Amino acid sequence: MRLHGHRVLVTGGTTGIGRGLTEEFIRRGNTVAVVARNSRHLAELTESWPACQPIEADLTDPSTHAAVIDQAIGRLGGLSILVNNAGVQYRHNYLDDPAEKVLAEVRRELALNLDALISLSVLALPHLRQADEAAIVNVSSILAFAPKRSAPVYCASKAAVHSFTRALRYQVEREAPAIRVVDIQPPAVYTPMTAAYGRKDQMLTVDEVTRSVFRGLERDQAEIPLGKTRSGRWLLRLVPNWTYRRFRDG
Fold first, then answer.
1. Which candidate in 154, 170, 197, 244 is catalytic?
2. What tens digit of pLDDT does each residue of 167-215 get?
3. Radius of gyration of the chain (CA)
4. Is 154 considered catalytic here?
5. What is the dihedral of CA 16, 22, 23, 29, to 10 degrees?
């Protein structure tokens, strides 16, 4: 697909992968709106990229979803690409951590990682159908295929994102073939969310992810596995138990 002249909405676009994708969309001549709940991060983004349209919202609150789509369309003059990138990961020990704390964080993970993604996709589809060329781009994870012990719900939410994206693609390719439904599958990427969890030299950089994602979009890939996700999925077919053991500790 072409990657210029689009009206793009990116969730979680002020840091990490979302920031990288946002900046590249702008460089390529697209009009971009970004959703985030942190007003300071939004201000920093728009200071660097004045053309970017900021939308402040907490996507864990379902009542904000319709307003976010409406604001994006009002500011962009339409919508042709939705990038569902926003996500959060909590680490839990279900045997020892207080149940109240675990459940509160679980609800936030599911609300942001899965419910908001589905809701925004459903709300965006009528508008995407009006574009000559459009896309829903969902960010899942290598952990959708091989979970780690420390983040069960994060892994489960990403597995659900992968499954939802594939099933939605089945619907859309029959009824609205101008809309592409894309699954981005990164391994560990060095971002503010992951900086405390591993060594930087063992993770992909945001720049590496951005280049690979745009290359995959240009090639009309339905699924874009990045870095270790490519080899990990291959190994799961050949030696699944060994691969699960390799990934279970992150």
1. 154
2. 999 999 999 999 999 999 998 887 766 655 556 667 899 999 999 999 9
3. 18
4. yes
5. 170
What would the pLDDT profile of 80-102 be if each residue is shown by its tens digit? 999 999 999 999 899 999 999 99
DSSP bridge pairs for 223: 183
List the 7-11 sheet strands across, edge first.
53-56, 31-36, 7-11, 81-84, 134-139, 179-185, 223-225
User: Dihedral angle at the C-alpha atoms of 51, 41, 182, 120, nearest 10 degrees?
Assistant: -90
CA atoms within 13 A on the CB side of 158: 23
CA distances to 104, 142, 176, 233, 248 from 227, rounded to whole Å, are 33, 10, 31, 11, 18
- What digits encode the pLDDT tens for the residues 103-115? 999 999 999 999 9
